[in-house]
Design goal:
The protein is about 25% helix and about 45% strand. With about 130 residues, the protein is an alpha+beta fold.
């Protein structure tokens, strides 16, 4: 009988911890949903491996025809909660550029929040 009671207490404690985690997650989402849409620092890169993993360019200069790799993390993108699932939906506008000095303007569109944010970074494309 004692083993059964102990097992039940451990399961109940685990559910309580999971409920606390879910409550905190929902608080974070509520704060982000109310926050202003934006960008973390936008970085021009020679390589992007994944989330938070990239190799920045030593100088913001590209050779003509080179691929422009940009790393950023969107801030405060709206998270929709439907039946225990989380949904985000955003797009970004990008334009091609010729040789010369340029300003890269990234425009992030949060489709669920109906908001936009911009980030600018200067770079060159050599001839």
């Amino acid at each position: 009988m004692r083993k059964l009671v102990l097992c039940f207490l451990l399961v109940a404690a685990g559910v309580s911890a999971q409920d606390q985690v879910l409550a905190l997650k929902n608080q974070i989402i509520d704060i982000q949903n109310k926050g202003k849409l934006g960008f973390s620092e936008l970085v021009l890169c020679s390589k992007v491996m994944g989330f938070g993993s990239y190799v920045p360019l030593e100088k913001p200069v590209l050779t003509k025809g080179a691929e422009l790799l940009v790393y950023y993390q969107p801030l405060n993108v709206f998270t929709n909660r439907v039946k225990g699932q989380y949904e985000i939906w955003y797009t970004q506008d990008i334009a091609e550029v010729p040789a010369g000095s340029h300003v890269y303007l990234a425009v992030l569109h949060d489709q669920l929040k109906d908001a936009s944010a911009e980030y600018k970074v200067s770079f060159e494309v050599s001839r």
